[in-house]
Write a structure and sequence with these properties.
Rossmann fold; 7 helices; 38% helix; six-stranded parallel sheet
């Protein structure tokens, strides 16, 4: 995140998804003006960011526009919408935080289900940079923080749809605290006629 924000041009628009990676990004990104950050926030739909970034770029073609998604969310919509960006010549830059897990769900399973993991580990992902190139976009695969800045600057300068496949560390020790911790708490009933349902 630090290297990306240092390389991101002033005035860029960023659409973030839901999930663990995006909740961290939402905490650290800083903007100098209004209408630069588009986010689904805590109960938005997974896969939101890439479509939102496409719309932002159509509305503001003069601004660099980024979609920041984890690998799970990117697989829901970003992966297929790269073809839309190429076909319609919408130069959005996707940054995929590729950590081989559904991080938010994994953190919930750590906190509420005693580290019993079901369906949260992604055993392997495709090379998202190569897939982008097959679809006609530019692809970058970065595995070290010192590669991120050059990839971001080159993607912005290219004026084309781009995907930066950022391979990052996954695992329990790096997951952020969930921002919807109350989701697994018993419901509160405030109307007497529903009190028997608690």
């Amino acid at each position: 995140l630090k290297e990306w924000t240092k390389a991101m041009p002033e005035g860029s628009i960023v659409a973030t998804d839901i999930g663990n990676n995006s909740s961290m990004a939402n905490s650290y990104l800083r903007f100098s003006d209004v209408r630069q950050h588009i986010s689904a926030l805590s109960w938005g739909n997974c896969g939101f960011a890439y479509g939102a970034a496409l719309g932002a770029k159509v509305g503001r073609p003069d601004k660099p526009v980024f979609a920041f998604q984890g690998d799970g969310a990117y697989g829901i919509s970003g992966l297929s919408e790269v073809m839309t960006a190429v076909r319609e010549d919408i130069p959005v830059i996707a940054i995929v935080a590729n950590n081989l897990e559904w991080g938010a769900e994994k953190k919930n399973q750590i906190d509420f289900f005693g580290n019993r993991f079901v369906g949260v580990n992604l055993p392997e992902n495709p090379d998202y940079a190569k897939l982008a190139e097959v679809m006609g976009a530019k692809g970058y695969r970065v595995t070290h923080a010192d590669e991120v800045g050059d990839a971001v600057r080159d993607a912005v300068a290219s004026g084309r749809p781009c995907v930066i496949d950022a391979v990052i560390q996954g695992g329990e020790e790096v997951l952020a605290e969930p921002f919807r911790r109350d989701a697994f708490q018993p419901p509160q009933r405030f109307l007497p006629k529903y009190s028997h349902l608690t």
